[in-house]
Specification:
The complex is a heterodimer of chains A (289) and B (386).
Chain A lengths: L3 H9 L7 E9 L5 E6 L9 E2 L11 E7 L2 E8 L9 E5 L3 E8 L5 E5 H4 L8 E10 L9 E13 L2 H10 L3 E10 L12 E5 L21 E2 L8 E5 L2 H9 L4 E5 L7 E3 L11 E6 L7
Parallel strand pairs in A: 3-5
Antiparallel strand pairs in A: 1-2, 1-4, 4-5, 6-17, 7-8, 7-10, 9-10, 9-16, 10-15, 11-14, 11-17, 12-13, 12-15
Chain B lengths: L7 H6 L3 E10 L2 E4 L6 E7 L6 E7 L2 E3 L5 E3 L17 E9 L5 E15 L8 E6 L2 H6 L6 E5 L2 H12 L5 E3 L7 E6 L3 H11 L2 E5 L5 E5 L9 E3 L7 E8 L7 E5 L11 E5 L21 E5 L6 H15 L4 E7 L10 E7 L7 E14 L7 E9 L3
Parallel strand pairs in B: 11-14, 15-21, 17-19
Antiparallel strand pairs in B: 1-2, 1-7, 3-4, 3-22, 4-9, 5-6, 7-8, 8-9, 10-12, 13-14, 16-20, 17-18, 20-23, 21-22, 22-23
Helix pairs in contact in B: 3-4
The chains are: A mainly beta (289), B mainly beta (386).
């Protein structure tokens, strides 16, 4: 018996003797003819019986081994699964991350670009929704008072079109575009859903310090919600990817005026890569920007 | 574990009240608010196709206004009954009432109503059973063999779920993902989803809000989310231990797809090598538990790292059943199956010496009435140095 442990395992599990796949590790044309194989799940190599008329396999081939009368017999070679396509990933960090905020009391707007104006720790911070604010009560003796809330919008620009053009130029195909964020606030709403919009702002043409305009037909799209501390990956709809590739959109944004939609997302570990777009594509060669 | 409201940990171990709100929905419309639940429970089982199921006892007539009632059982002549098995769902919220009257509310399930049973004459209570939303997907089998392939197992899971439930919310929080080479399944849609999840060391289930969650399966090194301990101000009431070797596996071998021409297979191996584990791999004559192996073939895996990650996750599901505990505890509505918890049990009659062991929850049953039993079945993973 060439593989007692495997046979004993079948007995222990009360399994009928079954054919097994093995990988050919050595072949000797002989005489005598000898083929050395190893089961695909690993283990020691061994030499099954070889039928006299059988064509000899090549090293690395996938062979079917049958148990016959307590011995293993090489039944032949089977076609191995074709090589899987090589999926490549291109990560696009934020080029601009505009924080747009309006106070619900005064109506005043405030605009800031987290990437260009603040330090790297805030690059990938994304906020949305109506945020409550409290004034006073901070040890200065004043009574805490509730101040009018702020509505927060974040507009992201990754320069996605250039990357999608580069992949197309390399005869590649984009299969998925994803965005991951980790919720980091401590607000009381356990499930906050990002509301995604498409925009046409760029580094050269940033949003105004006022009401942003959205591209018609692209939002609001409510994404799967996330909980406190949770990291969620969202897949962009294919229509949005096409819109980014054709310039209909230049970026995505998150905006809401609801307190239940409020969240802040940032990462404690990969701060400057947070809220990156990940492009998963196949192409003959890797694309670099 | 579901995110807990502030102070939940203190309230669950202290004096509290209970309020259960069960609403009936159909096609996104609430048909009935606050079913008068007279009894029942919610079962949560990691090894069941539907992660959650509910069993409610209702009065034979449901109040619809101050002086009006409607039968709980659906009347065949009524086109739009309040309760029926025609796509009706029950959404249940569980609130602990703190001593200051503050409700601490957690969702505990969104259930498709599968069975209604009771007296047509209104002489008995009506029994309602429901299952969580995986049932919709599991029922929707493939009419012909289906092959899937793509760059992301998590994305494929989402596609397969949304084919059955186009409006389903699918939340992907798994930290691992992998491309899927062609994977074929005859009829079992949910089985294919589970295979895809297993290929990335993840689990898929419908959470208490009915959202489908793709999240990392726990491993033996996952942190504990809750501690069951006996004594005043703690939540462990009793612990019954049973030991068996049946079904225990302490080595997991996961085979991937070995590329053509390779002489070494793509195989990931995980072993229970924790010195404090009761099921440690090794020579029983030298103090170890012994050796028991399970082999999983997963052709969608193409790298050694993927196989090892899946082996670790699959090993965690099978190891530890040697010392399962059946706990009786104070109900905790935020727990989820496959949560990892610590269990403190005394190791002397006096109770002065204690041991802390890490367990993974296989199943539990949450009562919907005050004072109900809260049995929890767990598997022992290892000792914890506290």
């Amino acid at each position: 018996m060439t593989s007692p442990s495997a046979v004993l395992d079948m007995i222990r599990r009360e399994l009928p003797a079954q054919g097994r796949y093995a990988i050919v590790t050595a072949v000797s044309a002989g005489p005598p003819v000898a083929v050395t194989v190893r089961f695909i799940e690993g283990g020691d190599t061994f030499q099954p019986d070889v039928l006299g008329q059988a064509a000899l396999p090549s090293v690395g081939a996938r062979a079917l081994i049958l148990p016959v009368a307590g011995r293993w017999v090489l039944a032949g070679v089977v076609t191995a699964p074709s090589s899987p396509p090589v999926y490549r990933t291109l990560e696009l960090p934020l080029v601009n991350n505009w924080h747009l905020e309006q106070n619900t009391g005064t109506g005043a707007w405030w605009l800031y670009d987290y990437v260009t104006n603040w330090d790297a720790r805030t690059h990938g911070t994304v906020m949305q929704g109506r945020w409550p604010f409290q004034g006073g009560g901070a040890g200065d003796g004043s009574e805490p008072v509730v101040r009018p809330a702020d509505d927060v919008t974040h507009l992201l620009y990754h320069g996605a079109r250039a990357a999608l053009d580069a992949i197309a130029a390399a005869a590649g195909t984009v299969h998925l575009v994803t965005l991951s964020m980790t919720r980091s606030d401590t607000l009381s709403n356990p499930q906050a859903a990002p509301r995604m919009f498409g925009h046409k702002y760029t580094t050269a043409s940033p949003p105004p310090e006022g009401s942003p305009s959205w591209v018609s037909g692209y939002g609001p799209l409510t994404l799967a919600p996330f909980q406190l501390g949770q990291t969620v990956t969202w897949t962009l709809p294919s229509t949005w990817v096409v819109a980014l590739a054709t310039g209909v959109l230049t970026g995505i944004a998150f905006s809401s005026t609801s307190p239940t939609d409020a969240f802040s997302a940032s990462s404690a570990t990969e701060l400057d890569r947070h809220a990156s777009l990940r492009l998963i594509y196949t192409a003959p060669t890797e694309v670099t920007l | 574990m579901w995110p807990l409201p502030e102070g939940y940990g203190e309230v669950v171990t202290g004096s509290n009240g209970l309020s259960v709100v069960a609403d009936v929905w159909k096609a996104g419309v609430r048909l009935y608010s606050n079913l008068p639940v007279a009894g029942g429970d919610i079962s949560v089982d990691a090894n069941s196709t539907t992660r959650r199921s509910c069993n409610l006892t209702l009065p034979p007539f449901l109040p619809t206004s101050l002086y009006a009632e409607t039968p709980a059982l659906p009347d065949p002549l009524v086109q739009a009954p309040v309760l029926a098995t025609r796509g009706h769902e029950v959404r249940i919220k569980h609130s602990l009432i703190a001593s200051d009257g503050r409700p601490l509310t957690l969702p505990v399930g969104r259930f498709r109503i599968d069975n209604l049973d009771g007296s047509d004459l209104g002489r008995t209570e009506v029994s309602l059973t429901g299952v969580s939303r995986e049932a919709y997907v599991a029922d929707d089998t493939f009419s012909s063999p289906r092959t899937v392939a793509g760059p992301s197992a998590a994305a494929l899971i989402g596609v397969l779920i949304r084919e059955s439930l186009p409006q389903a919310v699918v939340i992907a929080t798994a930290t691992r993902d992998a491309p899927v080479q062609a994977l074929t399944e005859d009829t079992d849609r949910w089985g294919l989803i589970l295979t895809l999840a297993r290929s990335i060391g993840a689990q898929v289930y419908a959470d208490p809000l009915g959202q489908f969650v793709i999240t990392d399966a726990p491993t033996t090194s996952s942190p504990a989310v809750w501690t069951f301990a006996p004594g005043e101000g703690r939540t462990l009431l009793d612990s019954r231990r049973s030991e068996t070797r049946a079904g225990v596996v302490n080595q997991m071998v996961v085979q991937g797809a070995t590329p053509e021409g390779a002489t070494d297979p793509i195989v990931g191996v995980w072993r229970d090598e924790d010195p404090s584990s009761p099921t440690r791999w090794g020579d029983p004559d030298a103090g170890a538990w012994g050796k028991a192996t399970d082999i999983l073939s997963q052709p969608s895996l193409t790298t050694l790292a993927q196989c090892r990650a899946v082996a670790a996750a699959e090993g965690a599901k099978r190891v530890g059943s040697q010392a399962g505990l059946n706990l009786s505890a104070v109900p905790h509505a935020g727990l989820e199956a496959w949560d990892v918890v610590d269990v403190v049990v005394p190791t002397s009659v006096s109770g002065r010496t204690k041991t802390v062991r890490r367990h993974v929850i296989d199943s539990f049953s949450l009562p919907l009435t005050p004072g109900g039993d809260f049995p929890v079945s767990t598997r022992d993973l290892r000792a914890v140095v506290s």
